[in-house]
Amino acid sequence: MADLGGRVDVGREEPPVRVTVVTMLPDRRLLLVHAHPDDESIGTGSTMAHYAAQGAHVTLVTCTLGEEGEVHVPALSQLVAAEADQLGGYRIAELAAACAALGVGDHRFLGGAGRYRDSGMMGLATNEHPRAFWQADLDEAAGHLVEIMREVRPQVLVTYDPNGFYGHPDHIQAHRVAMRAVEVAAAEGCAPLKVYWTAMPLSVLEAGMTQFAESSDNPFGGIEDIADLPFGTPDADIAAQIDGTDQHLAKEAAMRAHATQIPANSWLYAIAGNFGGEFMGVEYFTLAVGEKGPGAGPYGWEDDLFAGLPEETGPDRSPVAAAGLR
């Protein structure tokens, strides 16, 4: 990336405008759209580190600063929204550290840092905040993402399914914004060839429920039926399984960077200690846009999000217009 430096117009009193643009792009370009800082590490950390290590250009777009999060560091407890309301600013630094751990150097906030505010959980009064991402104008927010697509020209985009994976309003809105941006970018020829949604196979959830049934730190505590979980995808509907087990330590380091959000004694780390790369390193996706590439196993799961794509798609392709949204 190249910093074009300060640009000053004579006779104007505004501060210099600093512009950063991507001047040289690798053949593989991956764009991820997440709702809050820490979502990227928990949900797609190994995938991001996997592709970054391979030399792909990985761009992360985070839609809010996560202002409504809890704080699990006692010394920072007054940063919460109901007190100093400074948590969002603090989480910018946490996200920067997490991206560094994942090897990701291209991170942006949608519309700029603080443009959209964390909406909080569904049904809370915070959903109605005038800057809440849940209240964002869809076309305006998508327009910010299209600007990034024009610059980066990603072949692959990753975001959430229509339910935002588990129903959080900002996750749902991130899905809507990403998919609207794909539609707009398709008309300009800069849309990704493939769009994936994060997912968790039912077989993996079932195995987890069995494994931790007798554990004192059971993340599935109180769940009797797998159908009661707000997420879970039939194995036949999974399109890709990315094995980033060699990057599981990077994912764990990225999660630890989000110390205000993930307690040091979290069950996530306990599982990571017991199962290492198997738990931390494998992530799953459904395919929403584009053609599925070659795969393996009973359901033909891809092992590469770029499977079936040409080495370089070129700037004049309009793949979504041809493939259709489904």
From TrEMBL:
Reactions catalysed, semicolon-separated, are: 1D-myo-inositol 2-acetamido-2-deoxy-alpha-D-glucopyranoside + H2O = 1D-myo-inositol 2-amino-2-deoxy-alpha-D-glucopyranoside + acetate
Xref: HAMAP family: MshB (MF_01696)
Organism domain of life: Bacteria
Q: Where does Zn(2+) bind?
A: H36, D39, H171
- Source organism per entry reads Micromonospora chokoriensis
Free-text remark on how the cofactor is bound:
Binds 1 zinc ion per subunit.
This one is known as 1D-myo-inositol 2-acetamido-2-deoxy-alpha-D-glucopyranoside deacetylase
UniProt KW Protease keyword: no
Among InterPro entries, the record links this protein to: GlcNAc_PI_deacetylase-related, LmbE-like_dom_sf, Mycothiol_biosynthesis_MshB
Question: Which family does this protein fall into?
Answer: Belongs to the MshB deacetylase family.
General function of this protein: Catalyzes the deacetylation of 1D-myo-inositol 2-acetamido-2-deoxy-alpha-D-glucopyranoside (GlcNAc-Ins) in the mycothiol biosynthesis pathway.
Instruction: From the record, give the transmembrane residue ranges.
Output: none
A single BP term in Gene Ontology: mycothiol biosynthetic process
Q: Which residues form a coiled coil?
A: none
What does the UniProt keyword field contain?
Answer: Hydrolase, Metal-binding, Zinc
